[in-house]
Amino acid sequence: MIMIYAHRGASKECPENTMPSFKRAKELGADGIECDAQLSLDGVPMIIHDKTLKRTTNGGKKYVKDLTFAELKQLDAGSWFSEDFKDTRIPSLEEFLVWVKPTVLLINIELKNYSLPYEGMEKKVVALIEKYGLEKRVTISSFNHESLRLIHKLNSQIETAPLYRANLYKAWKYAKKIKARALHPKYHNLDGKDIKGIKKHHVKVRPYTVNDPSWIKQFIDWGVDGLITDVPDLALAIYKKEHP
Ligand code: G3P
Ligand code: MG
To answer: Is 145 an active-site residue?
Structure first.
């Protein structure tokens, strides 16, 4: 059984990391949603990928961290993608959690706290997950693995998953060392032997960001636990074809 996570929501069809993109991912039948979190100037966890506002909003070159929640909420996070999404707003993490709670979707919150420190972010994110009772449905991932250790200390029910780009030797050993129950590696360095080793040691593995149909099929055949993809509908169709 594989879990398909929609990367930044249904980001091929809608502006990434917005409510329309999350809602569309649900409609497409995704099992889960991956989203990226940063903090506003006044410390509110917001869902947006880049450090600056330039690419996905009309906020120009400013940094996300330099605007308050109220200021970020003024921005248009949809028009860059298409006029159909004009005036779509940057969602707060809380807004997303309120929407996702009554669904059965799995949640992967990626903390973007590796090149900017975002001090205190872990406590704020864990508090929100606890507020909505979502500990068992959330995986927190990050390239900042110290941060994941802190998350585990704050609430060991919440699964953590280190993100990494190059291959790790005996990745499952590293996962266990930092108390992570899952690994989120970049897909292109992985082979069947790595996956086998990770699975044998009961660590979950969900490569990112797998969009190519032949890679999707390959990872399904290797038995990964999940895939993070921009094309959840395609991944689901490939999976269903193999597992009617
Ligand atoms: O969480 C997997 C993936 O999203 C990591 O890279 O840059 O797309 O956030 P990025
Ligand atoms: Mg991400």
So the answer is: no
